[in-house]
């Protein structure tokens, strides 16, 4: 069952009925101002930090689930009938409803009572505001007397405090109205130098800024008293619950269209402004007037929207493919790249499954997100890497999360996730491979954001490697710490005796659990590190890293092999996890993918055996389960992982983030058919056909899909903000299609399915457009490359001479 369709020509997903199984959302903004918007106009907005600069209020886990957002109400003033053109919150029947989620914008349109309404929401490039561009058209044969009401609910800035500290918050709200603009200035008099504004392009019939006045004391957003009566109260909030609502009345002749603009924005007073003093509640309107006037001009709005479309066209043109598979083309060329931008911007901070008040930006998360983003705007990736490195500690460890507004590590979460530092190496390598910018390694970066502690970025990368080498267990494998990539596999605990309470590694001295996954990751990172330092002439250091990688590889094969697959770990008591001898959780996905990705087991057959075992035990119709069999009871010595129901999250769901590791691993052993099969099983575009089962958006990846041991097998969970986006993009583009940046050129080494006769691609790499044509000539994976008609040795195309902006590459597969 489908709820819409892909409009590939316009890079939009078109939703044709509002009652999607879950809210299907989009993101507005890609710089400092962001908004989440659902297909029925739900969601909220914030400036940079979803916790500390929340502009509008949103209640998670609400009933109905998606309640609160950017609502408009159309009222027929003659009959008194009113409705929401976005369906929510009034939820009356609408004709010709469509929601077009595009790249950085959403357009929702519908008809009711022969009145057609369309609203486009977007954030202009370089601006800290969003535009609601509303158009009402009279399809009747007689004139229509109409009212249009807007509504948003202001958040009192700190979203955590806003949702909990009611004894204070019911007494501090301040809103001011001047002309057609509503200013929200809560706490301005005390400590803030910023405010929000909500403006309308039309003269107002009325307004409201107090929620109870607008809704009525016992009504919800679906039947506001003001809208029902057709008359605003002109309320001004001083304490209690602040909101913003404009009331515009107008008459439309038959066939006539009325365009009304609403602007919701964030503004900070100039640093040198002289219009306020400490203790004042007078905001500097003079500095924001020009901004408001600019964006109430329809011509400026039209121009800004075209610039947004053009910007995305430019970004997507950096990598375009034409393959025999529609889903690959759609995801690589449009939606997967778009999702990579969103995950880069927000890490795991603000989705419909992340409230924006807890996690902030993840260290591990952001480094992985860069892997799928780096080709689009590498200079932004460079800055993100410097921000991440600045949260690193002098011992090489890292805060697991940091707040985007302050860029300081989150002490509540702390560190001790022992895989974190190695992700910095892998992300830095991705930047260098994309750009060749060796000066990056010389950038001075502090430790723990502490002035005076600055060291070159290369020093940070060295300490990341050393962090692992300084923490090896009795088997010679890396210690897991609080956890590795799997946050819920907490193997350091007091006891495995039933009935004793669980405590993590941070609560005891003994930290004995070891991770085979980190061992594989270390081999991968050490080899990348060797390539980087060799490029700057440090050949002895490069050899040391390669030696360390080889030693760890041998350790994994000796201590981490279970006979048919790689172990997951050793717990705090030295017992194997992910072994055939375990009652549950016999085999895990992560080490099979990561170890083979790192090249472990390729020479002795371990790699093929591990991947065949993974296919046999974990692969199902909806993807590869994270482990098999799932844990049916709670195991104290394993920690949080067994607290989930079997088939959900880390307990044997299909973790879409880790599935690409198996895809990449299969290309390492030359199995393009299986790699591509795995790709299609979790591809959102493919799963559109089973939307009633999948439930989440069919245009972006989810974190997980309920596994085969779940009664809801196939149902996607936690969409949008997930490492699934970057890793699936890497798997399909760099390993299956085989177009991978290297330090000395562009590698083109496809491992495609046997039934493909070939494909073509365009990839802009270091300012040069590579026109790539791949043709299958045989049944193997041996690639022969011709550059501008001349055969070259190997699979890496070097950069052409300076001044050459375009080259052609023919790849023949034998």
UniProtKB/TrEMBL annotation:
Gene Ontology biological-process annotations: carbohydrate metabolic process
SMART domains tied to this protein: CBM_X
**Has keyword Transferase?**
yes
UniProt keywords, alphabetically: Glycosyltransferase, Transferase
Every Glycosyl hydrolase 94 catalytic domain range? 312-738
Query: Which CDD domains does the record match to this protein?
Result: GH94N_CBP_like
Query: In this protein, which residues make up the domain named Glycosyl hydrolase 94 supersandwich?
Result: 12-269
Any Pfam family from its record, for instance, is GH94_b-supersand
Q: Which GO terms describe its molecular function?
A: carbohydrate binding; glycosyltransferase activity
- Return the protein name: Cellobiose phosphorylase
**Organism of this sequence:** Flexilinea flocculi
């Amino acid at each position: 069952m489908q709820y819409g369709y892909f409009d590939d020509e316009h890079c939009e997903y078109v939703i044709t009925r509002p009652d999607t199984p879950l809210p299907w959302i989009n993101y507005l903004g890609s710089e400092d101002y962001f908004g989440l918007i659902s297909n029925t106009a739900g969601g909220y907005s914030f400036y940079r930090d979803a916790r500390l600069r929340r502009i509008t209020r949103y209640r998670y886990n609400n009933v109905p689930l998606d309640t609160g957002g950017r609502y408009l109400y159309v009222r027929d003033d003659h009959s008194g009938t009113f409705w929401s053109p976005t369906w929510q919150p009034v939820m009356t029947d609408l004709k010709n409803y469509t929601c077009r989620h595009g790249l950085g914008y959403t357009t929702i349109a519908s008809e009711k009572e022969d009145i057609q309404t369309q609203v486009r929401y977007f954030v202009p490039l370089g601006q800290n505001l969003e535009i609601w561009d509303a158009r009402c058209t009279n399809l009747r044969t007689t004139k229509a007397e109409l009212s249009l009401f807007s509504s948003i609910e202001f958040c009192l800035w700190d979203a955590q405090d806003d949702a909990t500290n009611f004894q204070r918050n019911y007494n501090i709200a301040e809103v001011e109205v001047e002309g057609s603009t509503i200013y929200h200035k809560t706490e301005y008099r005390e400590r803030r130098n910023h405010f929000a504004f909500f403006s309308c392009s039309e003269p107002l019939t009325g307004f409201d800024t107090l929620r109870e006045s607008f809704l009525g004391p016992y009504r919800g957003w679906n039947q506001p008293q003001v809208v029902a009566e057709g008359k605003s109260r002109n309320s001004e909030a001083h304490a209690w619950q602040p909101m913003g609502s404009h009331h515009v009345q107008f008459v439309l002749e038959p066939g006539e269209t009325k365009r009304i603009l609403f602007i919701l924005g964030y503004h900070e007073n100039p640093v040198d402004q002289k219009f306020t003093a400490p203790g004042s509640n007078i905001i500097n309107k003079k500095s924001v007037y020009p901004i408001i006037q600019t964006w109430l001009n329809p011509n400026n709005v039209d121009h800004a929207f075209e610039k947004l479309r053009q910007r995305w066209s430019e970004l997507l043109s950096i990598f375009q493919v034409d393959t025999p598979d529609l889903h690959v083309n759609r995801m690589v060329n449009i939606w997967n790249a778009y999702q990579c931008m969103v995950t880069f911007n927000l890490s795991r901070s603000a989705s419909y499954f992340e409230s924006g008040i807890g996690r902030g930006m993840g260290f591990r998360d952001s480094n992985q997100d860069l892997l799928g983003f780096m080709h689009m705007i590498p200079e932004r990736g460079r800055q993100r890497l410097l921000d991440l490195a600045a949260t690193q500690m002098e011992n090489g460890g890292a805060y697991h999360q940091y707040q985007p507004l302050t860029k300081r590590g989150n002490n509540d979460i702390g560190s001790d996730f022992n895989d974190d530092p190695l992700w910095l190496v892998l992300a830095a390598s991705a930047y260098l491979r994309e750009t060749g910018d060796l000066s990056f390694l010389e950038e001075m970066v502090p430790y723990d954001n502490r002035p005076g502690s600055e060291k070159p970025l290369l020093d940070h990368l060295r300490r990341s490697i050393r962090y692992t080498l300084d923490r090896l267990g009795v088997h010679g494998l890396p210690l897991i710490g609080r956890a590795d990539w799997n946050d819920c596999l907490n193997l350091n605990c007091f006891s495995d005796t039933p009935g004793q309470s669980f405590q993590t590694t941070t609560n005891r001295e003994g930290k004995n659990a070891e991770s085979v996954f980190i061992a594989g990751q270390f081999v991968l990172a050490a080899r990348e590190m060797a390539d980087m330092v060799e490029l700057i002439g440090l050949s002895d250091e490069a050899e040391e890293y390669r030696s360390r990688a080889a030693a760890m590889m041998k350790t994994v094969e000796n201590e981490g092999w279970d006979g048919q697959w790689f172990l997951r770990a050793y717990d705090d008591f030295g017992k194997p996890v992910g072994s055939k001898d375990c009652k549950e959780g016999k085999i895990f996905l992560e080490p099979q993918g990561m170890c083979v990705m790192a090249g472990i087991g390729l020479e002795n057959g371990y790699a093929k055996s591990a991947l065949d075992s993974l296919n046999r035990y974990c692969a199902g119709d909806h993807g590869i389960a994270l482990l098999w069999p799932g844990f049916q009871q709670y195991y104290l010595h394993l920690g949080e992982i067994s607290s989930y129901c079997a088939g959900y999250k880390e307990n044997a769901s299909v973790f879409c983030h880790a599935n690409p590791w198996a895809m990449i691993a299969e290309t390492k052993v030359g199995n393009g058919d299986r790699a591509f099969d795995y790709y299609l099983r979790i591809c959102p575009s493919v799963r559109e056909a089973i939307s009633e089962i999948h439930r989440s958006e069919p245009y972006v990846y989810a974190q997980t899909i309920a596994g085969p041991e779940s009664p809801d097998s196939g149902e996607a969970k936690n969409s949008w903000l997930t490492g699934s986006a970057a890793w699936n993009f890497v798997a399909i583009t760099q390993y299956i299609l085989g177009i991978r940046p290297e330090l000395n050129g562009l590698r083109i080494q496809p491992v495609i399915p046997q039934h493909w006769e070939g494909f073509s691609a365009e990839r802009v790499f270091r300012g040069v457009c590579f026109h790539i044509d791949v043709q299958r000539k045989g049944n193997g994976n041996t690639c022969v490359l011709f550059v501008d008609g001349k055969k070259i040795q190997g699979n890496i195309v070097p950069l052409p001479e300076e001044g050459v902006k375009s080259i052609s590459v023919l790849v023949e597969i034998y």
